[in-house]
């Protein structure tokens, strides 16, 4: 099952994901679809290590430090899905 959140677009000015690169947005959208790092790597023809690095950059740019209490992937996906990203810009 493949769910498409939306095609990558430029984020709205001032939104938390504005500093993300196009590749980082692509990976974040796949995270929001529930893809694992291995799944993202296969879809984007990247190595697992590259996906890990991109995820790390996403978490840094979204100010999501490591925590035993929360899942950063879920929090990052929520930033995207809560409308803090304007796909029509």
UniProtKB/TrEMBL annotation:
Keyword Transcription regulation: yes
A Pfam family matched in the record: GerE
InterPro entries: Sig_transdc_resp-reg_C-effctor, Tscrpt_reg_LuxR_C, WH-like_DNA-bd_sf
Annotated ranges, domain HTH luxR-type: 13-83
The UniProt record lists the keyword Transcription: yes
Gene3D superfamilies: Winged helix-like DNA-binding domain superfamily/Winged helix DNA-binding domain
Keywords, alphabetical: DNA-binding, Transcription, Transcription regulation
PANTHER family to which the protein is assigned, alphabetical: DNA-BINDING TRANSCRIPTIONAL ACTIVATOR DEVR_DOSR (PTHR44688:SF16)
Protein name (Swiss-Prot/TrEMBL): HTH luxR-type domain-containing protein
């Amino acid at each position: 099952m493949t769910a498409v959140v939306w095609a990558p677009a430029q984020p709205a000015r001032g939104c938390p994901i504005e500093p993300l690169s196009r590749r980082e947005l692509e990976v974040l959208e796949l995270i929001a679809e529930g893809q694992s790092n291995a799944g993202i790597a296969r879809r984007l023809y990247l190595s697992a290590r590259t996906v890990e690095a991109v995820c790390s950059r996403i978490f840094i740019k979204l100010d999501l430090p490591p925590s035993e209490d929360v899942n950063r992937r879920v929090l990052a996906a929520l930033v995207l899905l809560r409308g803090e990203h304007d796909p029509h810009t």
